[in-house]
Design brief:
Blueprint (H helix, E strand, L loop, with lengths): L4 H4 L5 H10 L1 E5 L3 H13 L3 E5 L24 H12 L4 E5 L8 H4 L5 E4 L4 H14 L2 E8 L2 E8 L5 H4 L10 H4 L3 H20 L8 E6 L4 E6 L24 E4 L15 E2 L16 E5 L3 H12 L5 E5 L4
Helix pairs in contact: 3-4, 3-9
Length: 322
């Protein structure tokens, strides 16, 4: 009798499938609420290597949904606490804990040697950054987002269209769990669905979850799924998210936040232009314009306006990205 006996009894898994899982290398970006649900399931299933990226620390106000952690761990790094918990659950699973956020300048290194990536950060800046990199590297991506009692989970990249093919524009608002609230079971359900999708991709189940999206509404109890296999990638080049490590000496850095909101920007020298004034602002010629805000949403809107005016060299910095 072994740890995976019940799982291996499924004819679509068996010993060969279990060996596939044992050889798999999975990147999980974010060890919060979604990660708390999906990480133990992946470790329990026998994933060979889990690489966890998270630069946050365990906080008391998050424990209602981040059930992988204990009260005694408040203040400790999530990545290290998650790794310790997973090793206790299954010593067969190799866990690489990295106390860092996913950034545009480090995303390719984070994906090195990875068979599948999971976006559990619940940050649009992270999602677009990860999707852009996964598309270029042909790495499948499972992404989810939850707010209040609603959320979605989907499979992108690899042989499927990218996140941008389905959501070419950032959302209109920057509501988050911190500002709008969230229920723990809704998060856990979406995290568990991410784990199931990930295992299905790694095992080659058909139909594949790649190219599909499931919306979960725990308010009206509606669950809707659709496939987007034929979605076309945006015709125009995407306006990329970058970080300070990718800034160029001649960049024109535009801070969209007020002095009251952000007394200090990403660099000492910036031009401050509030979003409502961007339509009348004259961009410099021959220089890339880098737009800065907290989440990237205001910057994306400003970038769209400038792009419509013919500005081609644009980039976005989400200064408060996880």
């Amino acid at each position: 009798m072994n740890r995976y006996q019940r799982q291996q009894r499924l004819p679509e898994i068996g010993e060969a499938g279990q060996q596939q899982l044992s050889a798999a290398r999975v990147l999980v970006v974010g060890a919060g609420g979604l990660g708390s649900a999906l990480l133990p399931l992946l470790a329990g299933a026998g994933i060979g290597t889990l690489r966890i990226l998270d630069d946050d620390r365990v906080a008391l106000h998050n424990l209602h949904r981040q059930t992988l952690y204990t009260t005694e761990e408040v203040g400790q790094p999530k990545a290290l606490c998650a790794a310790r918990a997973l090793r206790e659950r299954n010593p067969d699973c190799r866990v690489e804990a990295r106390q860092q956020a996913l950034r545009p300048s480090t995303v390719n290194e984070a994906l090195a040697g990875i068979d599948l990536a999971i976006d559990a950060a619940d940050s649009f800046a992270v999602t677009y950054t990860l999707s852009d990199a996964c598309r270029l590297l042909n790495v499948p991506l499972i992404s989810a987002s939850v707010l209040g009692r609603q959320g979605y989970v989907g499979g992108f990249c690899g042989p499927a269209p990218s996140y941008r093919a389905v959501f070419p524009q950032l959302p209109a608002s920057a509501a988050s769990c911190n500002t709008a609230g969230v229920m723990g079971p809704a998060v856990a359900t979406l995290g568990a669905m991410q784990a199931q999708m990930a295992l299905s991709v790694l095992l080659g189940f058909t139909p594949s979850p790649l190219g599909s999206l499931v919306n979960c509404d725990f308010v009206q109890w509606h669950f809707r799924a659709f496939r987007f296999d034929g979605a076309e990638e945006p015709a125009l080049p995407a306006i990329p998210f970058i970080d300070t490590a990718l800034l160029r000496p001649d960049d024109c850095i535009v801070e969209l936040r007020s002095l009251e909101e952000a007394p200090h920007s990403v660099t000492p020298v910036v031009e401050r232009v509030l979003p409502e004034a961007i339509s009348g602002w004259q961009p410099p010629t021959g220089r890339r314009v880098v737009l800065v805000c907290a989440s990237g949403i205001r910057a994306a809107k400003a970038a769209t306006l400038l792009s419509q005016r013919g500005v081609e060299a644009l980039a976005i910095i989400a200064a408060n990205r996880p």
